[in-house]
Amino acid sequence: MKKEDARRHARRKQILCNIITFATVVLIWQLAATAYKSDLLLPPPWKTAKAFFFAVHDPDTLKNLLLTLQRVTIGFGIALCAGMSLGFLMGYSKTAMQLIDPVLGTVRQVPIMAWVPLTIVWFGLGDGPTVFLIAMVGVFPILLNTVAGVQSISADYYNAARTMGAGPWSIFKDVMVPAAMPDILTGMRLAVSAGWMSVI
């Protein structure tokens, strides 16, 4: 009972903190909007909420939102497949790490906006450039976290699995994937955030 009461108290405290934070942000927003006195530069919260309500019921806005969700989903899916595949390979094999890491390390340093002209030349106008950019910024968080997760697995787990007769596929699905999953989920969360910021 004490643990349950502690959890309830923690949840109530978290809800209260969220309410206080939200109210503080809205108050500062309102004060700043009052100081600017320009709806174009900084509209007040209630006008923004009103515009949001109308936007939610606007068919064109919903259509564009669904199109954006489709692009983010496709780009994230590509990043997830590529990032996890390379991440497991590089994390498990030192040879693969030595061969692939220099190339990926170089590509990762290129600013995302530098890819924009190339993507337009490669894919033309439409969904292609946006999906490519979302996949490009999303693949590296997933890749790096997958590598970190695989490399953090103790060799004892591999040895124990082999002594029980596990083959490469069993080791992969029963040892590597579950052990690296927390790091992979962290990479996925970062990839989704980066993907949304790359929608243009």
UniProtKB/TrEMBL annotation:
Record CDD domains: TM_PBP2
Principal localisation: membrane
SUPFAM superfamilies: MetI-like
Record's bilayer topology term: Multi-pass membrane protein
Location relative to the cell: Cell membrane
InterPro entries tied to this protein: MetI-like, MetI-like_sf
Record has Transmembrane helix as a keyword: yes
Family: Belongs to the binding-protein-dependent transport system permease family.
GO biological process: transmembrane transport
Pfam families for this protein: BPD_transp_1
Protein name: Binding-protein-dependent transport systems inner membrane component
Provenance organism: Syntrophobacter fumaroxidans (strain DSM 10017 / MPOB)
Keywords: Cell membrane, Membrane, Transmembrane, Transmembrane helix, Transport
Residue stretches making up the ABC transmembrane type-1 domain: 65-200
GO cellular component terms, semicolon-separated: plasma membrane
Transmembrane segments: 15-36, 72-91, 103-125, 131-150
